[in-house]
Structure formats: C-alpha cells, structure tokens
C-alpha cells in the first residue's frame, strides 16, 4: 500500500511541476500595448529659393508616409515623414544660399485599456547637423492622459519612461508629435546646409488580462491538487 501511494504521488508530481513551470513563465509576462482607435498623420513641406514649393500630407488609421522636394539648380530642400504602428520617423534637409526651408512631421494618437500598472517607454533619438547659415531642430511632444486627466504633457529631449497604475478598465490615450525642421539664410545671411532627423519607437507594455487569468487558474489548480494528495494520504493511512 505504501509503495502504491508513493507511485501515485510521483505521477501526480509531474503535472504539478509542469503547472508550476508554466506559472513561472506566464505570471510576469507582458504584451505590447494593444492600441485601438489609432490615428496616424504624416506631413512634409519643402521650399527652396528659385524652385516651386512642394507639400504632402497623409492621414490614416494605419501606416502613412509623406515626402516633399523643392530642388533647383543651386538651392534644394527636401522633407520626409513616416508614421506606423509603434514607430515614427522624420527627416529634413536644406542646402541653399538664400532663404529656404523644409519641415517634416509625424503624428500618432491611440487609446488603450489596462488591468494593472502601465510601464510606458519611448526610444527617442534626435539628430541634427548645421553648417554656415543653416539651422536645424528636431522635437518630440508627448501627451499622456487617463480617464480624461492629463498625466504628462511636454517636450522630451531623449529616451523617456513613465509608469502609473490606472483604475482598472479605464482608458488611457497616448499622443505623439515628432517634427524636424531646417532652414538656410534665415537666422543669418550666406550659404547654409542643415539636416535634421528623428525617430521614436513605442516600447511600453501593459499586463494582459489573459495572463493574470491563467495565473489565477494555475494557483487554483495547484491548491486543488494539494487537497487531493492530502486526502489520498489519509486514505492510505
């Protein structure tokens, strides 16, 4: 009888170990933010002296891009923008001896729900180059709200992180505007070259409801298994 009980205990320990291993791998799991009601915008404007200006603007609920170029024999200005799920990028360039400029902008807005603490991270990388009368700037404006209340609203200078615990079932809204702008012979006379680039990747995460459900069910299963083993030991005794 004791030998039989030991065999049963060992056989039952196998699914218990597997269940505990599953709990270990799923309990802390997080998923990329599941945005809904998303909107993407991309715009580009370029104007070089002596050449026709050009502008492009696109808006959609998914990936969009825009580009513009104003290129003459001596002066040139170009701009491009891309906005897609989880990633925005912009660039603008100018090379001119008289007043010329270019600007590119990418915008994203999306809502999401969460059942636990939100850890939001933005990998923002701006880059600019200027020479002579050239001027360049890249900016990222971040707006984050929850339940209609503003949590953060400001320009950021580099990689950015923000954590908060919203009311379960409440809606959060993330809004990003990334822009690059360049000019020549605007702040000072003479020939100038300028380039501006920026990219931002959304790297935050929120707990998945299904993960916590699996975790709760797993704990219940372990408890039930323990009770069955306890009863079996009493019977054998």
Automatic annotation (TrEMBL):
Protein name as annotated: PEP-CTERM sorting domain-containing protein
UniProt entry keywords in alphabetical sequence: Signal
NCBIfam families: PEP_CTERM (TIGR02595)
Signal peptide residues on this chain, from the entry's feature table: 1-31
Stored InterPro entries: Ice-binding_C
Domain Ice-binding protein C-terminal: 205-228
Pfam families: PEP-CTERM
């Amino acid at each position: 009888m004791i030998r039989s009980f030991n065999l049963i205990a060992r056989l039952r320990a196998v699914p218990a170990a597997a269940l505990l291993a599953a709990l270990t791998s799923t309990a802390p799991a997080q998923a990329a933010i599941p945005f809904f009601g998303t909107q993407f915008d991309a715009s580009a404007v370029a104007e070089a002296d002596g050449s026709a200006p050009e502008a492009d603007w696109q808006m959609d609920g998914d990936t969009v891009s825009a580009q513009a170029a104003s290129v003459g024999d001596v002066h040139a200005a170009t701009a491009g923008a891309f906005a897609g799920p989880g990633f925005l990028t912009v660039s603008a360039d100018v090379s001119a001896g008289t007043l010329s400029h270019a600007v590119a902008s990418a915008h994203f807005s999306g809502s999401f729900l969460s059942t636990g603490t939100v850890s939001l991270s933005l990998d923002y990388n701006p880059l600019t180059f200027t020479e002579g009368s050239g001027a360049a700037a890249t900016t990222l404006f971040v707006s984050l709200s929850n339940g209609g209340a503003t949590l953060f609203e400001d320009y950021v200078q580099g990689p950015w992180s923000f954590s908060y615990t919203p009311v379960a079932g409440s809606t959060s809204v993330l809004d990003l505007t990334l822009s690059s702008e360049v000019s020549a012979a605007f702040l000072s006379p003479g020939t100038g070259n300028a380039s501006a680039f920026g990219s931002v990747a959304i790297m935050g995460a929120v707990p998945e409801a299904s993960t916590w459900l699996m975790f709760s069910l797993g704990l219940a299963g372990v408890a039930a298994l323990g009770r069955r083993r306890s009863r079996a030991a009493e019977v054998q005794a």
